[in-house]
Amino acid sequence: xxxxxxxxxxxxxxxxxxxxxxxxxxxxxxxxxxxxxxxxxxxxxxxxxxxxxxxxxxxxxxxxxxxxxxxxxxxxxxxxxxxxxxxxxxxxxxxxxxxxxxxxxxxxxxxxxxxxxxxxxxxxxx
Length: 126
Known about the structure:
It is a single chain. This protein is of the alpha+beta class. Helices cover 38% and strands 13% of the residues. The chain has one domain (3-114). The longest helix has 27 residues, at 18-44.
């Protein structure tokens, strides 16, 4: 019997304590995040999304940041090496497309062009 179930069986139940509810929510959120990370690793083969990059992906990048409502959904997550993830965070590159449907298109921002970053063309066969 979980703690939440125990509190609901008491003779004069006051409901489940907020601490228990919050802990249960966090457990569900943690499981969703782990499941999403595993699916993204399988989809991307733990390789960086950037065209021509051969580094293993050490980070997960939210296409739409969590602070702006981005969720732990596979269509919103990319595998990225540290370098290219830093480029995202610095605002040097952006992406377009849905990674679940195929490779995303990588675009330079004005800052990226000023830094003379090059984005190689993705081959059609790859």
